[in-house]
Amino acid sequence: MELFICVQATTSNQQRVNMASPPAQVNLKIFLGNLLEDLDAFIEYVLCEDPTELCHLGYCEHCPKKDQLQALFDHLEDTISYRQWIKTDYMDFKIIQESKQEFTDRFKTLIPKMITHHFVYRNQKQFLKELKLQMNSFPNAGVMTVDFGQNYSFVVQNAVQGFHWTNTQATIHPFVLHFSMLVNGIPEIRHKTYFVISDEKRHDATVFHIFRQRVIELIKNDFPSLTKLYYESDGKLKHNY
C-alpha cells in the first residue's frame, strides 16, 4: 500500500508530493491546513461520526465522506508533481507529474486502503501491548518479536585495496523473546535476544522457517516451561509468520 507524504510547494503552479511506502509517517498538513494535524484526525474527519469496525474496513456505504474528501483537493493547482517508490527488479524513486484530477482520483483510491491498514495496525499493536502486560498471568507463554534479516558486508582490519570489491556478506536475523519470570518471588517481564548469523543471503519464507526452527530449539533449552509463542513481526510481505 502506498501512502502520501506532502512537502513544500516548489513553484506557484506546482506542488510537490512524496508518495512513500509504509511504515512512513503520514503528514497531511498541506492538504488539511490548520484543520487537522495527524492521521487519526484525518480518518476521523472522513469517516462517520461514530465509526464502527465496518467503517474502518471499508464496508460502510456512507464513508469515507465524499464531500469532505473533495474539499481537501479544491485548493490544489492544475499540475501536481510527486515522487513515488516504484518496484520492478529493484526499488526506484520516480518523479511523476499528473493533472489535478488524475492526482485526486489516485489519492481517493488509496484512502480506504490507508484507513484499513491503520485500523489493523492500531488493533494489532494494542493486542500485543495488552498481551505483554498480561504475561505474568500466563507464565507458559512468550511473545517473540521478529525483525527482518539484513545482509551486512565484512569489515577487515588492514585489508588490501582489492578487498573493497569483494562482495562477501552475512545475514543477521534478530529474534527477541519476551517472557515472565520470578525475581525474588515477584513475577517480572524480561526479554532475551537471539541472533541467527548465516551466509544465506536469501530472505524468503523457507530461509526464515529454518532460522525459526533453530531459535525455537534454543528457547526450548533455555526455557523448558514455555509451551506457547506469539509472534510479532514487522509485517514484511515475505515474512508472513
Quickly list its features.
four-stranded mixed sheet; about 240 residues; 9 strands
Describe it for me?
The chain is α+β, with helices and mostly antiparallel strands. The chain folds into two domains: 129 residues, no CATH class; 100 residues, no CATH class. The chain has six helices and nine strands; from the N terminus they run ββααααββαββββαβ. Strands 5, 6, 7, 8 and 9 form a five-stranded mixed sheet that branches. It is flat and about 60 Å long. It starts with a strand and ends in an 8-residue tail after the last strand. The N terminus and C terminus are likely disordered.
SSE layout and pairing:
Blueprint lengths: L2 E4 L7 E7 L8 H4 L6 H8 L6 H4 L9 H8 L5 E9 L3 E9 H34 L7 E6 L3 E4 L15 E15 L2 E13 L6 H18 L5 E6 L8
Parallel strand pairs: 2-3, 5-9
Antiparallel strand pairs: 1-2, 3-4, 5-7, 6-7, 7-8
Uncertain residue segments: 1-35, 236-241
Radius of gyration: 23 Å
Strand content: 25-35%
Order of helices and strands: EEHHHHEEHEEEEHE
What is the approximate shape? flat
How many domains would you count in the coordinates?
A: 2
Q: Structural class, judged by helices and strands?
A: alpha+beta
Q: Kindly state the number of beta strands.
A: 9
- In angstroms, what separates the terminal alpha carbons? 19 Å
